[in-house]
Amino acid sequence: xxxxxxxxxxxxxxxxxxxxxxxxxxxxxxxxxxxxxxxxxxxxxxxxxxxxxxxxxxxxxxxxxxxxxxxxxxxxxxxxxxxxxxxxxxxxxxxxxxxxxxxxxxxxxxxxxxxxxxxxxxxxxxxxxxxxxxxxxxxxxxxxxxxxxxxxxxxxxxxxxxxxxxxxxxxxxxxxxxxxxxxxxxxxxxxxxxxxxxxxxxxxxxxxxxxxxxxxxxxxxxxxxxxxxxxxxxxxxxxxxxxxxxxxxxxxxxxxxxxxxxxxxxxxxxxxxxxxxx
Length: 278
Description:
Shape: globular
Helix content: 10-25%
Oligomer: single chain
Number of helices: 6
Order of helices and strands: EHEEHHEEEEHEEEEHHE
């Protein structure tokens, strides 16, 4: 088993001289595996690269304390502990700097949990080679970010402003594979809609290695969907198709270089954590 992480700046930010607002990190903690990706909101017009890093480090702090205290994978009150830790370690006076999506992965030799707030998604690779990709996208591109929970009465005030829409975000699930001729085969595709309440404490997804027949897990920011001239299915398939002894960082650098040579540039920042159960 191993877990690795990678993040890279997008073409638009590079050309405009804006720092990479994505961040990713991964660690083995005792017999558990931790990974996190975070995507700072460009629309905040702030230094959200700072927020992405702070949220990631706060998630690590909470998980480390939980594991060292022998409390399993993800505590039931993870969201409140995350907010508490973040408040204790704030280093910026501009609240806009703190607006970022956050996706956390924690796994042992049999089970994994994914905690998600904001946009982005995750992918599960099945033992038969299929990949199921889950993507969370918000209506009007207005995600519920963890930073909003720093405001004690956020949901109450949101209701007063009449912005509580019946449909806040969509979850798209696509199971796919590639045949021997590298042709994309879509085996399942669904799209469900959800309201704000569904994510107000973060989403928790449980993954069971044996019952779900899973060999690998990836968590990714929405930069996966920013590659032009190539589908996100091919990008994630390339990222998951890594030999056990390869280094994820080198592998994905090579993959992105290959994409760029063929005109498939990632316009947005992109980050990924990959956990291999084998």
